[in-house]
Amino acid sequence: MQTTELPGAGAGAGAGAGGAGEALSFDLTRRPWIPVLHSNGSQDELSLRQVFDQAGDLRRVVGDLATQEFALIRLLLAIAHDALDGPADVEEWAKLWEDPDCFAPVQAYLEEHCERFDLLHPRTPFLQSAGLRTGKDEVFSLNRIVADVPAGEPFFTARIPDVERLSFAEAARWLVHVHAYDTSGIKTGMVGDERVRGGKVYPLGTGWAGGLGGVFVEGATLRQTLLLNLVAADTEALDFSVGDRPAWRREPCGPGSGGRAASGLRDLYTWQSRRVRLHHDADGVHGVVLGYGDPLAWRNMHRCEPMTAWRRSPVQEKKLGRSPVYLPLEHDPARSAWRGIAALLADRLEESGGAGGPSRLRPRILDWVARVVTEGHLPRRFLIRARVAGVRYGTQQSVIDEVVDDRLVMPVVLLHQQDPAYARQAIAAAEDAERAVRALGDLAADLARATGAEQDGPKAAARAEGFDALDHPYRGWLSDLATVDDPFEHRATWQRLVRQTVGRLGDRLIAGAGDAAWQGRIHTGDKGGTYWLNAGLADVWFRGRLARALGNPDAPNSTGTGGSTAVPDDDGLPRPGPADPLPETDHAATDPEEHA
């Protein structure tokens, strides 16, 4: 690990500590604090200067959690946007892409603003409010900012029961994270905050990124990752402001809120949703004061925030009496990224979505990459990773229940705006899997009904097994799209693989059904009539459902959803019918503003 000694940093005084009688300092531009993975597989901690200097030789940033990595990437992007003051347009971006030393101006920029990057500065500590205090001068446990220890119930056991001390490097990472993902709930009021009532400030929502279904694009190196997410200022789908600037180029925040709106990407990537003050000594950070900062409403921020998909909210449209109203499309922890690929790829602008606009908007960061591809600045067979990160909050957003972390390797041809066939087949292939796995779950439920047993458990277990069996094959199939000339034939190959995989799982369910399932029992349909359900009939129904889900991949012009095989209708009686539509279940149903 490489370190840079600063004046006054004496031996034995702790990282960044000053000598006797001198103020402590931890300059994030020079001190190692960002965990990274080198291209050779080794891990390290680097300063901001080192990260930008070595970006071409680094694989990626490695956070303590996926959400911390997301927050750190946004911080690096804010620095890059501000240091380069752009890019102004796609041509300027292309020059940066071709220049291996494109981040050279960042070094002078960090030198100019190094005082505002000092974690321990007495007047302007990095992303903190100097002098922040409660009415009783309380100093709280570091559990309040370390997200793997929410509410005393840690995700990881290494820090049980409390976080008593953090190194300055760790504290800096969690400081960036708490502004992005802090929980909601009642918080202790800060002296000077006009929102305090009875010593408390009542819930104002999570940190800004906590309401997003976070998405960014990964390249082969950190340099590529930063450039792929460095959106040009002439992007029509996003609003840019001449006055946009990050937190360290603004006046330090006081204890209250200025009530202002975000001015652009640089501001939003470093948004101060909390007021924080770290308490420390020469050996590290041992306590924190944490309160509410500047809240932001998630409604209709799709022209400002590029790193999430968006969905229309009928509840908000009815409440506000206007349309459309878009809210971030959050990730569902129960669904892998490939199962929600439609939210990443589908161009919802071609849908009417009813009066007022489309029903969904894909992440603008992917629109930006699509533009770069369409205008020929990236080869069609270039591979990227769509990285998704987010959280699921619980108990009125006062605790973190789950962290979402997934990535999906895909060729940029899927984002080509003038050649949507590849993207449509990728989405259709994921829908093939959904329908086939639904048929597998229905088989498990029918076998349970044949014995008079409970159905929900076997059905859920069969569906989980089906998606697990198709997860790795779909990811490989998607990556291989970069090498094929006919996406339709490639989808037919996928349908055959799904038919074989899910068919084998169905065979195993039937073989293990037992004598009671083969004997069966009489059932009465919801609309009257009786029928004898046993494993044999369940097998027939399953084959019919699977045929409807996938069609015949070897037949000309097969749609994958045709056929009129007899399958049970809503009353349980077999009859022909069209394929069932897929439900809208590729996102979390939680609407942070609809529960306000």
From TrEMBL:
The gene is casA. NCBIfam families: casA_cse1. It holds the Pfam family CRISPR_Cse1. It comes from Streptomyces eurythermus. Residues 551-596 are annotated as: Disordered. InterPro entries: CRISPR-assoc_prot_Cse1. Residues 584-596 have a biased composition (Basic and acidic residues). This is Type I-E CRISPR-associated protein Cse1/CasA.
